[in-house]
Design a protein that fits this description.
The structure is a homodimer. Chain A contains 17 helices and 23 strands. Chain A is of the alpha+beta class. Chain A has 4 domains: 47-234, no CATH class; 253-423, Glycosyltransferase (Alpha/alpha barrel), CATH 1.50.10; 429-526, Maltose phosphorylase, domain 3 (Sandwich); 530-642, no CATH class. In chain A, the strands form 3 sheets. In chain A, strands 2, 14, 15, 16, 17, 18, 19, 21, 22 and 23 form a 10-stranded antiparallel sheet that branches. In chain A, strands 1-5-6-7-13-9-10 form a 7-stranded antiparallel sheet. In chain A, strands 3-4-8-12-11 form a 5-stranded mixed sheet, with no helix packed on it. The first copy, chain A, is globular. The N and C termini of chain A lie far apart (51 Å). Chains A and B meet through helix 12, helix 15, strand 14 and strand 20 of A and helix 13, helix 16, strand 14 and strand 20 of B. Strand 14 (530-535) of chain A pairs antiparallel with strand 20 of chain B, so a sheet runs across the interface. Chains A, B: Residues 432-528 form the Non-reducing end beta-L-arabinofuranosidase-like GH127 middle domain. Chains A, B: This is Glycoside hydrolase family 127 protein.
Chain lengths: 645, 645
């Protein structure tokens, strides 16, 4: 069980790296998104999201506009606002949020139902198209927001509204006679109901979540039944209409990740949470199998998932093309959610390593340093002309966009980043697991003892972390510190004395059990070396290539630093590379630079093919963290660098 | 001017390699296509192509069915049949062809018009949508067929019908007051009218062709004018609706190949032919610029062109991905047409090298060895699972298909292969240019002297060619023999005596000027070595890769010989490779085999990424000619092989 759930505590982020991002979210993203939701952006299509609620509440007249899941944009904004209020009090923001909540209350039906699409557009068609119309998805996001707002502000109003909605949903779905035997086309309600269970303790929500999870994929197939009722005959756009929704098999029988990547990881998150909460062994096994499949066969080095645009989906094992990947920001965010829940099942650094990888690379790459532009798709290789001229790469943008028609990623990033503190720890009776390293202060309840915790670090630029553990009284418990899988060496000290951590390490966590006293100090020094990463040779796109990584950060070459035609930079296997902090570059980053080779292009003249071997010359290269790419002039980018002979 | 045009002579192919293909065309493809045109194939959509003509002729009742260009399938079949009759007399086939021609005559309008789509479906809408509806395209194919049939059989009926049609078209289009100032959306009529000019000598056809060529791309734009007349407002599907049709600029100003690849090369063919016929310098310059652009920046090693499925089109310079290429069979066929016409402009081996490259690789790869299955798209790298599961590769088929909804490629191959003899020579006053080497017999008129010619060779398996030159009387003229650009060494003998060919070589042709006598013998021995070809480093997809080539043939690795995961075969730069003829494999091919390396896949275990370097083991590899791939069990294929360290 996690801190934010049991004995929830606020986390104050003091980290240099993350504070910047939190500030950007607070100062730019949340206000910008508020303007978007209220149709005040000049350069974007009107969202109409707030207006839909106003119409439903009787405060305005007009018709519904927007995607069928437009409500969820408001929900994600409220959730991000809630997390932001947690560490950055802002009465004005809180007042606005309260007003939105009041609006939701006014819009909500007598029975608890709240979905402006159906209320305004198809009032008699509730629950007739679960597969496509995101009804439970929107409900789930509203529930998540309500839980976050309650935790951040202590105010119950929103939570009560959404409990009422959940109670109503419970009357509609379930195994009982007369109830719909269905589930959502876009998973989300499952994980939200579990959060609602955490704060309310009401078993009903846990049971309903389990019902949705277990009903999925059963035959006769619910999507067919409801489709028949709709008298709809058109085929589903994806080649396997069940797999797209991960409804091709009962979830306990699923071993390979398929279909829409965001739907998948949201579902896996709920499965892992439910398995942990209920000690459900078969569900746990399914989660583990899916985890192995995703992270060992279908995940990009950046923590990106979803290797094709068609269906925003997983394609197949080891199919990880770098230039046409989908790697949606939201999918990496969902991977973070899932990893955190896997850590509840077992403290294994393999989960935290992936969580960290996605956090420092494939999620935050979705936003520019100013928080003003966003990527939906986070490719590992970009040639701008190809994005412009090749239809099969048009989903890959060479520059971030201000907003999207389907605006799921920016608010999702906002809620992830503003809740970053919730991913640092988890706990279990007398064990405190430390998954992430970032400057912060918080306090937790460990078996009844209040413990103040703080970290100081320059992470991810170096791996020195000082952690202070201050129980309110001398108290025995375990602090289990993660030693990242990317590290070759680490030194651990407690109160200045070196601790030989190998004998007390299990699955990448060092278990320090002792009687802790006020101001006890843990010093962990994790060596960060520049690594040349190679991909499994079954990944046909990466043979003969290497990627640079240092600590949790994946690096890339950009045209701004290296000129164009990045394919012609060849990285020697024994390249001498150095890492140096450059405070003036990209708001301060550690740059990797050194000598490589470059294929001589001019030597070729006009010919397209020849028998003579290529010639190379020495060339300086400079790599920057992947998350920070595309913050200067647009150009080529490449993570996987061709290796030299 | 070419042999088939001026002093047209039949060519009897005795070549081992090409005879097999001609036989397949005659025995299988032409009858199969006849069955297709008559809706007698069980496993294919009905073509309705003959039925459309029967309805138009009043011999049947019913409605038009098929593509808007369905007539052209009949035309291409007639053209292929004509070429086949030239070297393979077949009274039954000729009778069938005569019957079809009689049907066309019956269907043709009083005014000469003949297009079943418009006659049956939109009788009052002739010439209202030149951009999309292939009206002049179909006319062009009918004209080409008529010319071929006249040349093969000496029968004028079809030629007269089509002259009448062309005369009518000439009353519709042209610079004169009241005529349409337009041109076709799919170029074809231009090259056909020039062929009609060749056999009739009627300047009208040359002038009309030139009109179409020169009108193209002028402003105000004809496609806009006719679109406005149609009161059509929908946008064109391609990102540049002019460029798709090569109508973005007047043709003389075009320097880069853009848009739909088949349209492009059909147009370039006509431009080159017109330039040669009229000594048109600016048109010649445009042809040369476009040739350099296509062959030095946009052509695959196999002679394939068109690197994207979207628009079946050129994408941009040096953008030559191997797994998502379009490389349509028809586009390579058009490249052969164009190359032949460029050779009329100048005898330069660069044109013949490309012509040969396309003939021996990217065109005939479109058909299996039995002539029963066809590729529309000829990729250079195939991973069957990707073709099946990735939407962006669904245009690439891992196995050849029996027929296509848009059945352009199979009949196009049939007409190319059955006219292969027309590509061997061209002539100019007292010069006979020998472009290709294949066993055959023919005779030509050279400045009034009849000359019997024959070649014997085992090409493309070895480069020894014996050519017999037998003028009817002792006669001085020049035989200019091409020394292929892929050859490192050649030995030339005339009547047994070695000729030092360097002093008499120009642009890759050896000019032997002498008084030729009966049974004079030229022996040319062109060295064929196994070459590792590298691509220009601006082709980002091929850095670190090499392709195998021997003589005119490009080779590939197939899973059938090398197992799967072909990306893991690494070709040493100094690999010892041998070429051996295997008469039992793929109907007899020279196989390239030798020692390479293979990345150890098992050594990886489960991990997707790691820091340790890959390990390799020695591995035997076996490469087969690209044209013959996919004639065994389906599997992976790869032309560009990763190079070893």
């Amino acid at each position: 069980m996690t801190i934010q759930q049991k004995g929830y505590q606020k986390v104050k982020i003091t980290d240099r790296f993350w504070s910047k991002r939190l500030e950007v979210i607070h100062d730019h993203v949340i206000p910008y998104q508020w303007a978007a939701l209220n149709d005040r952006l000049e350069d974007a299509e009107p969202s109409h999201a707030i207006e839909n609620f106003r119409i439903a509440a009787g405060e305005a007249e007009g018709e519904y506009h927007g995607m069928v899941f437009q409500d969820s944009d408001v929900a994600k904004w409220l959730e991000a606002a809630a997390y932001s209020l947690e560490h950055h009090p802002n009465p004005e923001l809180e007042k606005t949020a309260d007003e939105v909540i009041a609006l939701l209350q006014k819009a909500q039906g007598e029975d608890g139902y709240l979905n402006t699409y159906y209320m305004l557009k198809e009032p008699n068609q509730r629950w007739t198209n679960l597969r496509d119309n995101h009804e439970l998805y929107c409900a789930g996001h509203l529930i998540e927001a309500a839980v976050a707002y309650y935790q951040a502000t202590g105010k119950r109003a929103f939570l009560d509204l959404m409990s009422k909605y959940a109670d109503y949903i419970d009357t509609v779905f379930g195994p009982e006679e007369g109830k719909l035997k269905g589930y959502d086309g876009h998973q989300e309600i499952e994980l939200a109901l579990l959060k609602l269970y955490d704060v309310t303790g009401n078993d009903k929500y846990l049971n309903l979540s389990r019902y949705f999870i277990d009903e999925r994929g059963k035959q006769p197939h619910f999507f067919d039944i409801e489709k028949k009722k709709r008298q709809e005959s058109s085929p589903f756009f994806f080649h396997d209409g069940y797999a797209y929704h991960q409804a091709h098999l009962p979830v306990r029988d699923q071993k390979e990740a398929v279909g829409h990547a965001v739907r998948a990881v949201y579902m896996y998150t709920a499965m892992a949470d439910l398995a942990a909460k209920t000690n459900d062994e078969t569900l746990k096994k399914a989660c583990e199998a899916l985890w192995e499949n995703v992270t060992q066969k279908q995940m990009y080095l950046t923590g990106g998932i979803g290797s094709m645009a068609f269906g925003e989906a997983f394609s197949f094992q080891y199919d990880l093309p770098n230039d046409v990947s989908y790697t949606e920001t939201c999918a990496s965010i969902g991977l973070v959610f899932w990893a955190k829940q896997m850590l509840e099942l077992a403290a294994d650094h393999k989960y935290a390593d992936v969580m960290e990888k996605a956090l420092y690379n494939g999620t935050i790459s979705g936003m520019d340093l100013d928080g003003k532009k966003f990527f939906y798709v986070n490719p590992l290789e970009v040639q701008p002309e190809a994005c412009e001229k090749r239809n099969d790469q048009k989903h890959v943008k060479a520059v971030r966009q201000t907003w999207f028609g389907c605006a799921c990623c920016p608010p999702n990033l906002a809620r992830l980043i503003s809740s970053i503190g919730h991913y640092i720890y988890s706990q279990k009776e007398r064990e405190l697991f430390v998954h992430l390293y970032m400057g912060h202060e918080t306090n937790v309840q460990l078996a009844g003892c209040r413990v103040q915790l703080a970290q100081e670090t320059n992470y991810p630029w170096d791996g020195d972390v000082t952690m202070t553990v201050s129980p309110e009284k001398a108290y025995e418990f375990t602090v289990a510190l993660r030693i990242p899988g990317w590290s070759r060496h680490a030194v651990l000290k407690v109160n200045g004395e070196v601790v030989d951590h190998f004998p007390i390490m299990k699955n990448g966590y060092v278990y320090i059990t002792r009687t802790w006293e006020d101001q006890d100090k843990i010093e962990l020094s994790i060596q960060m070396t520049i690594e040349q990463i190679k991909a499994n040779p079954l990944v046909r796109h990466n043979v003969g290539k290497a990627a640079l990584q240092r600590g949790p950060l994946v690096y890339c070459l950009e045209e701004a630093d290296n000129g164009g035609q990045l394919q012609n930079i060849l990285l020697p296997r024994k390249a001498e590379l150095k890492a140096e902090y450059d405070e003036d570059l990209l708001e301060g980053v550690v740059v990797i630079s050194g000598k490589a080779e470059r294929i001589d292009e001019k030597d070729w003249g006009g010919s397209l093919y020849r028998t003579a071997e290529i010639q190379t010359s020495p060339a300086d290269i400079k790599a920057v963290p992947y998350y920070a790419w595309c913050n200067r002039e647009p150009g080529e980018m490449r993570v996987w660098i061709n290796q030299s002979r």
